[in-house]
Every structure is written in structure tokens, then in C-alpha cells.
Amino acid sequence: xxxxxxxxxxxxxxxxxxxxxxxxxxxxxxxxxxxxxxxxxxxxxxxxxxxxxxxxxxxxxxxxxxxxxxxxxxxxxxxxxxxxxxxxxxxxxxxxxxxxxxxxxxxxxxxxxxxxxxxxxxxxxxxxxxxxxxxxxxxxxxxxxxxxxxxxxxxxxxxxxxxxxxxxxxxxxxxxxxxxxxxxxxxxxxxxxxxxxxxxxxxxxxxxxxxxxxxxxxxxxxxxxxxxxxxxxxxxxxxxxxxxxxxxxxxxxxxxxxxxxxxxxxxxxxxxxxxxxxxxxxxxxxxxxxxxxxxxx
Length: 297
Prior knowledge:
Blueprint: E1 8-10, H1 18-27, E2 31-35, H2 41-54, E3 60-64, E4 69-70, E5 79-80, E6 85-89, E7 100-101, E8 116-119, E9 124-132, E10 135-140, E11 144-145, E12 151-153, H3 166-177, E13 182-185, H4 191-201, E14 207-212, H5 215-219, H6 221-227, E15 230-234, H7 235-241, H8 247-260, E16 265-268, H9 283-295
Parallel strand pairs: 1-2, 2-3, 3-13, 6-7, 13-14, 14-15, 15-16
Antiparallel strand pairs: 4-12, 5-11, 6-10, 8-9, 8-12, 9-10
């Protein structure tokens, strides 16, 4: 049966086996997503091969990290209370015990005392206490634990850099060689950004899923949607990079424009967050999914 509404499901270590993949596909998974921010390229290569062999009719999406900043691979996850000081650093190799390495090696150049820093889709909030060389001292504005590969957002701070990083180029090349169907591009800023990606791909496949997840993306929404093959609303980054109060309005605006330009659109982040720990969704989550579908996702 052809379903109008598709379901994108992220595959991780616990589901990267033939039995689970078949179960998920039968349950309604329309697209298998792999997150390029996690695990090694060898793992992604073997998982892509496994998906193609096990459920050949299921398209594969590889999400490319792009300019998104994350914490590094930590062996120690620092827990802190409100007003505690933790140190993030643009120097690689710190495991979280004394300092937390991040994936951007220039962030220290752009932050000043008083700037706000968010982590883990805005669940953790900090203010910059001071910047010493490449170390950024953060004062916790809430208690929590900072874990590996969690997103770091610095709204309203303009971080300079190339639209397409060397890592992006490697991931795009990897996507072409391994014949994935879609690549997800984070923090798309303009149609120019997407045209540069298309030039690198040089063919029709993989198709480009453009993520609108910051203010620049919102400002250039029309041209981004027009140029992209598919749009994704990443609500975690979008709410943190703009503000959570306007998230519902922005989501509806993006969906409406995507429908006008006949582009498929994915709504992502926390669709069933309660089910990470519990067996059933909340009523709010059920209504959220219904409203997203009813709007045209």
C-alpha cells in the first residue's frame, strides 16, 4: 500500500542488524537515516551495505554534519549544577574529565563574556564566563550532564568559515561511492550553498535534503526551498538558533512554502521523545504528529 506520509527512522548500533531492519521496514519505515556525526565511516559503509541487502526497496539518507558544532567523543560525561563552571575547548583530544573538546577549532575567536551557549538541542544553557586562549569557560545556567557528540549552539554569534568544509567533501564523496539515495545538509544558508553541493555531486543521485535550522536559513527560505530536492525542519537547532516561542509559526511557514513549490518536507526532532524512556507517546506528541501531517509534512 502506498502511504502518502513517509516515516524517516534513524538507524543506530542497536538496529543495524537484519532482523531489526526487516521489523522496522514492515512497521512502516520509509527511509533509513544514518547520522554522519556518529560512528565511523567504516561502520556507515557496512550498515549501508546491510540495508541494501536486507531491505533493498528502502531508500537511505546519510546526514552530513556540515557546520554543526558538537562535543567530541568523550569517555567522561561531566555532570554539573547551576552556577558550576565547565570548560569546553577548541583543542582536540580532551575526554571530558578536565575539558570538553568540540568539533569547531575556531569557536574561541568568536565568543566573549556574557554570550549564551546552548547544548543538546537547547536542553543545557550556559553563559560565557571568560575565554582563555582556546579554552571557553562556561557558567551553567541549569544543572545537567554534557555527553558525547551533543550539538553546541551559539545563537546570534556569526561564525565565519567556508560553506562547505573538507569533511563535507569527504562525506559527499563517500555518499556517492556507497550509492546512498539522499544526503542531508545541515545549516543551509542560501541557494548558492546548495548549488555548490550539486556541483560536487555532479549527478542526479544522491538527492539533497536541505535543513532549515537557523535565522539565515529562515531569511532565505524561499530560495533554499526552490533549489533543494527535499526540505527538513530540524526543530532542535531551529528552536535554539532562533527562539522556541516562534517555532510553531516558523514550522508552519516552511511547510506552506514547501507545498507551494511542490517540495517534499520532513519534520524532525522529538516527534516521539517520550518513548525514549516510556512505552507510549504523550497526547501532545500525538497531536504534534497529526498537526505536522495535516499541515502537509
